[in-house]
């Protein structure tokens, strides 16, 4: 066992912190439709309106300004997919359907691509292991792994278009292709070893309708582009590429990525995760919908995003800055990126050579 495993995976649980997290948040645990619906709808309306401006405006400066607004607004709207994986299915009637119709299917990222995937990342015995679809020991890899991790996101919307417009229709006629697409290209995962199990029951029916909607929409986009030109679609794909890069940057700093595959205690998982609380204001742009409190989210996965700031305030006041809870707070994006980059330059090459268990992307 390496020293990093000893220092992270074997950290004992801080029971006082875990008890406080449960006790202090019982009264703020309900998802509030009066917050979810307006937030999602306003983000989507602003995003699509700005995207239309980016496509239609003749002034390059105005088009670029609209594209920037579209990236931020659509990014926020898209990140509600994270909430859909955690809130109870009956908590917000119609929200899952509404989000998929307004955001998920138009952006070719329906909720099935995260549902029953992200919850594996929160499973007590899976986090940080080879069975975690959302974990790689990025801080322990070679330095070039980080830029490759970010650049790969640029191709995501183009790959999604090909998936829904080509692979899904072909898979309906070719079962082996259908199985391959489901196992390897149906989850928002970063672990290349992850293989998705076939859907069952009600979830299989949900997948069918969402994939059908995605395929119809993707084919309509292609048909429109063939008939009227590819420029609007290419601009839209570039905007969504920027959204994907934004999300990949956020993912890069959501954790410290220091575990090499061993199961971790809840406290170790918390300390391997990141909060970027106020007074910084920019985190609300690059980590919206509560994701600036990602470590707190790992303590309280079912807590709705609009309650995380209050949960953080209560836990900080109860436990203090010098507590285990305070150790997961960091000042900002660039400091976290620099920390991971320095780690890869210091130990990545040596660990990759000495430990074949370290995953190489």
From TrEMBL:
GO terms for molecular function: oxidoreductase activity, acting on paired donors, with oxidation of a pair of donors resulting in the reduction of molecular oxygen to two molecules of water. One of its GO terms (cellular component) is membrane. Pfam families: FA_desaturase. Residues 61-325 form the Fatty acid desaturase domain. The lineage of its organism: Bacteria, Pseudomonadati, Pseudomonadota, Alphaproteobacteria, Sphingomonadales. Keywords: Membrane, Transmembrane, Transmembrane helix. The chain crosses the membrane at residues 35-56, 62-82, 94-114, 146-174, 203-224, 230-249. It comes from Novosphingobium flavum. It comes from the Bacteria. Coiled coil: none annotated. This is Fatty acid desaturase. One of its GO terms (biological process) is lipid biosynthetic process.
């Amino acid at each position: 066992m390496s020293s990093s495993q000893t220092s992270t995976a074997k950290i004992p649980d801080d029971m006082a912190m875990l008890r406080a997290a449960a006790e202090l948040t019982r009264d703020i645990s309900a998802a509030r439709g009066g917050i979810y619906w307006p937030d999602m709808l306003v983000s989507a309306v602003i995003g699509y309106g700005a995207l239309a401006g980016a496509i239609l405006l003749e002034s390059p400066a105005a088009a670029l300004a609209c594209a920037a607004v579209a990236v931020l607004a659509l990014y926020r709207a898209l990140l509600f997919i994270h909430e859909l994986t955690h809130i109870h299915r009956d908590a917000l009637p119609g929200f899952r359907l509404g989000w998929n119709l307004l955001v998920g299917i138009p952006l070719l990222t329906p909720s099935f691509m995260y549902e029953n995937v992200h919850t594996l990342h929160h499973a007590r015995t899976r986090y940080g292991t080879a069975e975690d679809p959302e974990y790689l020991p990025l801080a322990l890899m070679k330095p070039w792994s980080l830029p490759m991790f970010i650049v790969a996101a640029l191709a995501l919307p183009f790959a999604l278009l090909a998936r829904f417009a080509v692979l899904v229709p072909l898979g309906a006629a070719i079962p082996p292709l259908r199985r391959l697409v489901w196992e390897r290209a149906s989850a928002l995962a970063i672990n290349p070893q992850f293989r998705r199990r076939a859907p069952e029951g009600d979830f299989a029916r949900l997948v069918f309708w969402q994939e059908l909607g995605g395929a119809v929409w993707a084919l309509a986009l292609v048909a429109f582009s063939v008939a009227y030109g590819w420029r609007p679609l290419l601009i839209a794909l570039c905007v969504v590429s920027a959204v994907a890069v934004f999300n990949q940057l956020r993912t890069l700093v959501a954790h410290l990525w220091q575990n090499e595959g061993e199961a971790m205690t809840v406290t170790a998982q918390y300390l391997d995760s990141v909060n970027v609380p106020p007074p910084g204001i920019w985190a609300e742009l690059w980590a919206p919908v509560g994701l600036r409190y990602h470590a707190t989210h790992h303590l309280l996965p079912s807590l709705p995003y609009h309650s995380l700031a209050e949960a953080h305030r209560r836990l900080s006041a109860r436990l203090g800055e010098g507590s285990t809870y305070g150790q997961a707070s960091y000042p900002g994006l660039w400091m976290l990126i620099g920390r991971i980059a320095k780690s890869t330059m210091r130990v990545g090459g040596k660990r990759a050579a000495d430990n074949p268990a370290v995953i190489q992307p």
